[in-house]
Amino acid sequence: MSLDRRTDNLGYWCDGPVRQTPDDAAIIDLSGGCERVITYGRLDAELDRFAAWTRRVGLDAGDRLAIVVGNRYEFVVAMYGAMRAGVVAVPIATKIGPDILRYILKDAECRAAVVEPAANAFAVDACDEAGMAARVALGDVPAGWQSYGDAVTALNAAFEPPELSPDYPAFQPYTSGSTGFPKGVILTHAGQLWWIRALEKYWPRPKGDRVLAAVPLYHKNAMAGAIKPQLHTGGTVVLLPDFEPRRFLEVLSQYRCNHAGAVPTVFTKLLQQQDLIETLDFSALQTLSMGSAPVQEELLDAVRKAFGCPVSESYGLTEGGPVMIGKPIDGRPVPDGSCGVAWPEGEVKLVAADGTESQDLGELWVRNPGVTPGYHKLPDVNRKRLVDGWLATGDLFYRDPEGFFFFRGRVDDMFNSGGENIYPKEVENLLISHPDIYDACVVPVADPLKGEVPVAMVLRARGSTLSEDAVRRYALDNGPSYAHPRRVEIVDQMILNGAGKVDRKEITKRLTALFADVIAARREDRGQEKADA
């Protein structure tokens, strides 16, 4: 078989170490309460078996395969094994409800599914209702389904991939749906391979490195931060089935991991385990990375001090490359609060609210081979967000004179209060600078006097007696008065979405309902003022 078909197929992204070091560990899977070491040779054979299974059940190139599986190596096999056969993988968040799950299966027109019933209680029924051609299950096998082992692992490992054009779709993840139903993002073999190769070219990782992955595999943070770059260069991914702070720390130390990345809320929870951090050996750690959500400078500094290694802020977008901003290749240090400079390949620009290009503040637009060619069956969205190959990301950035980019939040997050523009991330940064505040989320609620005013949900440090009045006073004393939160809910756990990010949409609903009486009182007061006048 010609190597060309493998070279242009994302399903063979780990082909180098498969040929060079087949006995090295690719994945150390800690799911199920035990350790499973998956060598590169074994991984390659299982990828071929899975590709052969897709053909056996009648899937053709271009057909969609739903994957609803937790953090275990079989997720990687299903996703990239499907790609070898030209089948388009549709990785689905395990923590979504039945309505969104049914929507995705229908929207993507999935013809087959690989499901771990324990990972999502609704997936089996949703796939049954969709009338799929083939359904396999990991763990408990529902009636009418095949077990993953019986269906896949018994097949002959030999497989020859089809010829695929460079722009052929490789997989189709769905956005989180924070502003409505999730959108299917089409990503191509050539575009994703460009990104992996650019990463290796400019920021190569040593072959023996180990990366800890505990965030969900269906999410960009795990795929772009661990699975794709690490297994392309011959490193090892230590895979945790889920995130539990103390277990994360123990594995990070025990397996001598060199790198780990996660969303900021993960690191916020880790810092609350200071007693354990002080007893463990993290001397193998070389870097830690936070991304997929706004990162406060105070959190970066606290994590750096706790673990004694460099900590960086990363930025990426599923449909945008996924990463197009990073460390300068000339070795310049990245200032705190910045996620780096523009990549040496691809293009970026900032666009102001009036549509003109800005040099310092605006919406980030990107153009590179990894950008999605389009959202699945959403022509109106494509016309709005994709212009001459440029993707409008919806993310607001500031660029300093040295070319470093600073994330300022989503364009849609900014709101106006009494004529003043308020950027939630700036208020959140201020709140988190308080020593007793671990995390904060600032959102607008309707107000009869100002139009909208900021309110906040605050995660208080363990053992702290911080009050709402103290939080408000701190904001007034250290920031502009118009931006201080008018009300504050203090919590022991932030509301998160399935990807582990702060769920701004749900927090807005909660705080709007919680402070409705205050809003009503202000409206009544305003009415009385008018009557008195």
CATH superfamily of the domain at 414-532: ANL, C-terminal domain
**Which oligomeric form is depicted?**
single chain
Strand arrangement, major sheet: 2-1-11-10-12-13-14
Per DSSP, the total helix count is 18
- Class by alpha and beta content: alpha/beta
The residue ranges in which pLDDT falls below 50 over 5 or more consecutive positions are 525-533
Kindly state the number of beta strands.
Answer: 28
Outline, from the CA principal axes?
A: globular
Distance between the termini: 87 Å
Mean pLDDT: 90
User: What helical percentage do the residues reach?
Assistant: 25-40%
% residues in beta strands = 15-25%
Q: What fold name goes in the CATH topology slot of the domain at 414-532?
A: GMP Synthetase, Chain A, domain 3
Compact description:
The chain is an alpha/beta fold and 533 residues long.
Structure in words:
The protein is of the alpha/beta class. Among the domains are: 345-410, Luciferase, Domain 3 (Luciferase, domain 3); 414-532, ANL, C-terminal domain (GMP Synthetase, Chain A, domain 3). 34% of the residues lie in helices and 23% in strands. Strands 2-1-11-10-12-13-14 form a seven-stranded mixed beta sheet, with helices on both faces. The termini are far apart. Mean pLDDT is 90; it is low at 525-533.
List the helices and strands and how they pair.
Layout: H1 3-7, H2 15-20, E1 25-29, E2 36-39, H3 40-56, E3 64-68, H4 73-84, E4 88-91, H5 98-108, E5 110-115, H6 123-130, E6 134-137, E7 146-147, H7 148-153, E8 169-171, E9 185-188, H8 189-202, E10 210-213, H9 220-233, E11 236-239, H10 245-254, E12 259-262, H11 264-271, H12 274-277, E13 287-290, H13 297-307, E14 311-313, E15 325-326, E16 341-342, E17 347-351, E18 357-358, E19 361-367, E20 374-375, H14 379-385, E21 386-387, E22 390-399, E23 405-410, E24 415-417, E25 420-422, H15 424-432, E26 437-447, E27 451-460, H16 468-478, E28 488-491, H17 504-514, H18 516-532
Parallel strand pairs: 1-11, 3-4, 3-5, 5-6, 6-7, 10-11, 10-12, 12-13, 13-14, 27-28
Antiparallel strand pairs: 1-2, 8-9, 9-20, 15-16, 17-18, 17-19, 19-22, 21-22, 22-23, 24-25, 26-27
Helix pairs in contact: 3-4, 5-6, 11-13
